[in-house]
Amino acid sequence: MQLLECPIRNYAWGSRTSLAELRGLPAPADHPEAELWMGAHPADSAWLREDGGRVSLVDAIAHDPAATLGSRVRAEHGDQLPFLLKVLAAEEPLSLQAHPSREQARDGFARENRAGIPLDAPHRNYKDENHKPELLVALTPFRALAGFRDPAKTVDVLKHLSGPIMKHYCDMLAEQPDSGGLRALFTTWITLPHRPLRALLDDLTDGCVRYLREDAHGPFRPVAKMLLELAEYYPGDAGVLTASLLNYAELEPGEGLYLAAGSLHAYLHGMGVEVMANSDNVLRGGMTPKHVDVAELLRVLDFSPTDALPVGVYNASPGGTAEFIYDTPAPEFQLSRIELDATGLHHSVSIGVIDAGPQILVCTHGGVTARCEGEEIEVPQGAALWVPACDREVILHAGSARSQVFRAVVRA
Ligand SMILES: [Zn+2]
Q1: Of 77, 88, 366, 381, whose CB has the highest number of CB atoms within 10 Å?
Q2: Which of 124, 143, 149, 284 is catalytic?
Q3: Residue 371, CB half-sphere, CA atoms under 13 Å: how many?
Q4: Annotated catalytic, 221?
């Protein structure tokens, strides 16, 4: 096991304080810090210190896949780390997006190759052949849009938050309150010409302002505020209309949101731990100045109405250990949250099991000490630890009255 040196991605939507404070560095940082990448993604690998120099985790794994990944993971996923772990800090809303299924990704990747679209072209959708299920667990209160809301509820929301122009569309959805109706409405809105789009957006924002002024305790106040915020960040963007069709989730720290293939989503504000399959396949659906490929998006989106309920969490063993596992179906990863208390019952926990495969841990509160075969490593808050498959009997010890660690492994 070894500490990882992890790159930070400076996207414009990032926070200048969250990641710096997590890592105990001076805040605000000079630039927005959006994502801390802890993994072996070819675009931005983490690094391991090696006498005098450093080696990327990508190279370390390629050099000895048997020791780093172990036989189970190699057999199931090949000679690459199947997941990427991140800490994400959103100060401003990210674009609406969805990720393809494995089959869609394979088809799309081949199609774009045949068409001769370079991998780094701005209008390239498929960068690899993989799907990208993702799980986000909130570290702070976290706001997100995820999946299409039950259309009957959406009709109710729009009736309260908009005016005469929207009424026509509202009636359309009321007549066909299912995935077909959502698809029709989404397609109409995303292809509206500029002038009717502006008029419809004004109708919606005027409706939200009126609702907030007139109904001091109305149930749709959070949605109205969210839509006005998005309209301010993305004036004239049809994505704001789309946002009114999606579930608006406010996660508490520790709650997780799982995004399956085809689920339209956007992270709006907050800091969280995110784990995903090692893929770059993103289809944007609005709230972005970047390329939106409407035809491809329509091929991938899942319009079935859902609820954005937090992911179920279960205890790692019936005896009541300090580890809580997020229950998701993705084969590439399993994320758990470990809560330790230096003065209490759960002051240490064993995380090394035979055939656990590779593990990456990130300490999000307090600090921990990791021990393995006589070796000892301090993992301060904000630091990440790489545990190769060959390291067994790893034990984490709490460094403070409250130590919190997120642990990513390949699902068994
Ligand atoms: Zn995503």
Answers
A1: 88
A2: 284
A3: 9
A4: no
